[in-house]
Amino acid sequence: MNAHATIQGPPLHELSITRTIDAPPETVYRVWTQRLGEWWAPRPYATPVVELDLRPGGRGLMVMEAPDGTRFPNEGVFLDIVPNRQIVFTNAFTAGWVPQDPFMVVIITFEPEGSGTRYTARVRHWSEEALRRHEAMGFQEGWSIVAGQLAELAENERIAASA
User: Fold this and answer.
1) Class of residue 16 by CB neighbours under 10 A (exposed 0-12, middle 13-18, buried 19+)
2) Which of 20, 24, 43, 163 is the most exposed place for a label (fewest CB within 10 A)?
3) Long-range pairs for 78-82: beta carbons < 8 A, 24 or more residues apart
4) Tell me: the pLDDT tens digits for 129-142?
5) How far apart, in whole angstroms, are the C-alpha atoms of residue 95 and residue 103?
6) Strands 98-99 and 46-52
7) Which residues contact 56 (CB under 8 A, 6 or more apart)?
């Protein structure tokens, strides 16, 4: 008798948004990494604190600020960086691999598409409950808004470079 075991990975509990941006991946990546404070939070929220150590194990800290001054820190570490193509980070750890209550792993890709970029943000959660909580926080609307803000900056940068 032959026993066959099928090993199946855990469910991804994934939310995602995709947007085509009329700028090359290099421009979108540069705006993502160098101008994050300008687009990370949906307006009228702001991002007054941005600290990015763009290397595997490097710290990422983004502090969003509400119009009333309430601050929302988002700290984690980068897991993978492929310049102009991919950024992967998680909030399961802080710098130095110090564990914290995990919520998500984020996979950002910058894929060439014609003369532009297919920008995709995939957010994987540890549980269905965390995914549902992120949906209830307004994931689709919020992440779509900030992708639009990123696109606006990248497209304006592309136009300025070609002028």
Assistant:
1) middle
2) 163
3) 78/53, 78/54, 79/105, 80/56, 81/54, 81/55, 81/56
4) 999 999 999 999 99
5) 16
6) unpaired
7) 78, 79, 80, 81
> Mind listing the pLDDT tens digit for each residue in 10-27?
668 999 999 999 999 999
Instruction: Give the separation between CA 56 and CA 41, rounded to whole angstroms.
Output: 24
Sign of the Cα torsion 95, 88, 35, 132 reads negative
Torsion-angle region of 6 (φ positive above 0: left; ψ -120 to 50: alpha; else: beta): beta
- Taking the mean position of all CA atoms in its chain, how far away is CA 33? 11
**pTM of the predicted protein model:** 0.90
Structure tokens at 99: 């564990």
Residue pair 24/117 in contact (Cβ under 8 Å)? The answer is yes
The phi and psi torsions of 152 (rounded to 5 degrees) equal -60, -45
Amino acid 32 reads W
The string over 117-155, giving b where at least 16 C-beta atoms fall within 10 Å of a residue's C-beta and e elsewhere, is bbbbbbbbbbeeebbeebeeeebeeebbbbbebbbebbb
List the end-to-end C-alpha distance of the chain, in Å, as a whole number. Answer: 72
The whole-angstrom separation of Cα 128 and Cα 91 is 17
